[in-house]
Amino acid sequence: MTLDTGALIAMERRKHRALLMLDAAARGEALLTVPVPIVTEWWRGSTALRDRILASVEVAPLPPSVARAAGEAIAAVRGATAMDAIVMAYAATRGGLAVTGDLGDLERLRAFFPSVRVLGLDAT
Prior knowledge:
Elements: E1 2-3, H1 5-12, H2 16-26, E2 33-35, H3 36-42, H4 48-56, E3 58-60, H5 64-76, H6 82-93, E4 97-100, H7 103-109, E5 117-120
Parallel strand pairs: 1-4, 2-3, 4-5
Helix pairs in contact: 1-2, 1-3, 5-6
């Protein structure tokens, strides 16, 4: 599963589904991946919970091929943001499931990445 910033925020806000995923990852039962740029957008300093979240996910580098695919998606999908496009492009290369706190943003990008399934988490 590839997480966006909203999914990380949902974990911080202790949303039920997000915590279930975090617990599964901590037990080694799920692989949660966060592309490096998403960490930059989310991180606001160390806390016990943020440190636990970061320790439970795989922080993945941004390969040039993913960056190019994200850029092409931004050009093709009106209103797409770089971070959302990176999450979707990365998910397209790694199993095809993107987890988000804002379902609408990633669903729009499915037009460019049709193989990616999107799971929404309530981040409010």
